[in-house]
Amino acid sequence: MEDMIEFTSKQRKALEKIAHDLQPVVIVGGAGVTEGVVDMIDNSLNAHELIKVKFNEYKDEKKELITEVCQQLDASLVRIIGNVAILFRPAPEEDDRKISY
Length: 101
Known about the structure:
Layout: H1 9-19, E1 26-28, H2 35-48, E2 50-55, H3 62-73, E3 76-81, E4 84-88
Parallel strand pairs: 1-2
Antiparallel strand pairs: 2-4, 3-4
């Protein structure tokens, strides 16, 4: 398992700017962060590299929950804004949808 990426402030700002117009693709509801939610986050990261996850429930635990998910999926937390987490996981090098930040 790779370590999560540590972003410079410039990289973080660039990713936040790209994510600004994105809608959350995964919503954490009453069931919490289930295996299904983790699978949806994994599939979304495979498809898009940069996603938003919205917390409708478990708002007080969102930092811990999203950190745990990032560790499981080798993803990185860009930032939490309100109840929305921005996650990033780079696509493999040979993939043409790679985001440059």
